[in-house]
Amino acid sequence: MRKLANRILALFLLFPPTAYAGPVYETLAGAAPAPVLSPSLPEAVPADTRAYGESAVSYTARNARKLAAMAGKLTQINFTDGGMDGQDKYFYWGAPSVVRQVTPAQTGLIRHWTSNGVVDGVPVVDLIVKSGALKAGPRPYIIPESHRADYYQDLHGVFFTTPEFRPGDLWMGLQPDSDYVDFVVDRNMGALYLAPGNYLFPCPLKLPGWLAAEYSKWKASGGPMPSGMEFTFNQVEREGGLQESLDIPVTVVRYQKGGKVTVLRPDLLAKPY
Questions:
Q1: Inter-residue contact 218 to 143 (CB < 8 Å)
Q2: DSSP, res 95
Q3: What Cα–Cα distance (Å) separates residue 105 from each residue in 2, 169, 178, 192?
Q4: Using one digit for the tens of pLDDT, what is the confidence trace for 185-233?
Q5: 178-202 burial, b for 16+ CB within 10 Å, e for fewer?
Q6: Per the structure, how many domains does the chain have?
Q7: Which domain covers residue 162, as residue numbers?
């Protein structure tokens, strides 16, 4: 019972359920009327599905172009009420009007803060330095404020910033001595500018293993969509179904761990591209 409760909580945190009916969605300025969520495949598909073995350069380039073309075209699909003292949450398909495609050469040296994360007892910064790859997380792009947060469900993958951007402005609870990795990528990698200091390498939607298994079980059954899974499964359907995961290959230039900075490629530090 506890295991099931934990899974339901995780699902709520990743993909919160609808709290209000259609009219509430239409009250937010600039938002289109909310579509009726149904088991059928939505008409608009924001991302091309990834062919088996397709490179990160090819996938990110294609999808950065497609997502940039969606800038300013927002449809509000969900809302949860935070109450008098909580944070209201708004969920959208599409992208904010400021989103645009950029090249790695335009951003220069790239930084990814790890928030001092640890996986199986190993600091994430060590995993990145050793593997030379960044993995996408499960959350989409979020614009948080004290009283509300906007979730852009189509914008997900590997998020990054630049060394000169202040970590305190990223809403991640970072400190100047938090762990980070500075790196460069293939100059043809596709990327998106989201906001000052916020960038994205678009990657296939990542679900927790148990949730991906539930989706596969539903698809194999041919039956109706399970109650309570509509919001999550519709997003998967919108993107063409479950896809092979994608890592972003990087060349680590410099990293910070425990407040200590180590430079691996001084040549790229001086001239990234």
A1: no
A2: B
A3: 49, 23, 26, 13
A4: 999 999 999 999 999 999 999 999 999 999 999 999 999 999 999 999 9
A5: bbbbbbbbbeebbbbbbeebbbbbb
A6: 1
A7: 2-45+54-270
